[in-house]
């Protein structure tokens, strides 16, 4: 019953809100339902922590931009890593950012080839996914990047040069993905 309740919460959120932008509070509620579903599914094999600065909750963000970052952890980061799987999500307001999301996992880490292709595609003028998809599928270990590419591309389309992203190795294992928006004038 708990799974059905969380899933119906996600479906209600998706169907009631057709706007391109939502508050971080709304985006976080949707993501929290997803995290709770994964916790129900994987029980003690999955742990997560949220650190959310209250002042960020009223900020406006693109709709469905946070949950795909979390979903990537399950589809890619935890494929070859033994449980317990851990995700740390933080949302903060910093001096030079309107808002900054950080998703940190302790999974497999990012395939360097896929990461380099993602950076090249994001920095090119051609933002179509067609060529990128075939490059990813041809890589020896398909560790994704399509969902992340779409998320980053939406950020660039919506915020242009104010959009920021960073993909780093986590200190011990896994990946840190940061996305955010710079303030005007910085």
In short:
By secondary structure, the chain is α+β, with helices and mostly antiparallel strands. It is built from six helices and seven strands; from the N terminus they run H-E-H-E-E-H-E-E-H-H-H-E-E.
Description:
- The chain has 186 residues and is an alpha+beta fold.
- 43% of the residues lie in helices and 24% in strands.
- The protein contains six helices and seven strands; from the N terminus they run H-E-H-E-E-H-E-E-H-H-H-E-E.
- It has helices spanning 2-16, 24-42, 67-77, 112-123, 130-138, 146-159; strands at residues 21-23, 46-52, 60-62, 85-92, 97-105, 163-169, 175-182.
- The strands form two sheets. The protein has a five-stranded mixed beta sheet with strand order 2-4-5-7-6, with helices on one face. A two-stranded antiparallel ribbon has the order 1-3.
- It is globular, with a radius of gyration of 16 Å.
């Amino acid at each position: 019953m708990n799974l059905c309740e969380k899933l119906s919460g996600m479906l209600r959120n998706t169907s009631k809100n057709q706007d391109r932008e939502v508050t971080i509070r709304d985006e976080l509620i949707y993501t929290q339902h997803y995290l709770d579903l994964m916790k129900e599914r994987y029980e003690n094999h999955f742990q997560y922590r949220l650190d959310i600065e209250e002042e960020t909750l009223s900020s406006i963000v693109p709709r469905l931009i946070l949950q795909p970052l979390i979903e990537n952890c399950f589809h890619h980061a935890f494929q070859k890593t033994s449980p317990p799987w851990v995700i740390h999500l933080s949302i903060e307001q910093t001096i030079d950012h309107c808002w900054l999301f950080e998703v940190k996992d302790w999974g497999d880490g990012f395939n360097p080839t896929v990461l380099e292709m993602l950076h090249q595609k994001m920095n090119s003028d051609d933002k179509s996914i067609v060529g990128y998809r075939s490059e990813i599928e041809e890589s020896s270990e398909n560790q994704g990047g399509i969902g992340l590419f779409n998320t980053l591309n939406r950020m660039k389309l919506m915020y242009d040069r104010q959009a920021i992203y960073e993909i780093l190795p986590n200190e011990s294992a896994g990946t840190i993905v940061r996305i955010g928006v710079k303030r005007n004038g910085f």
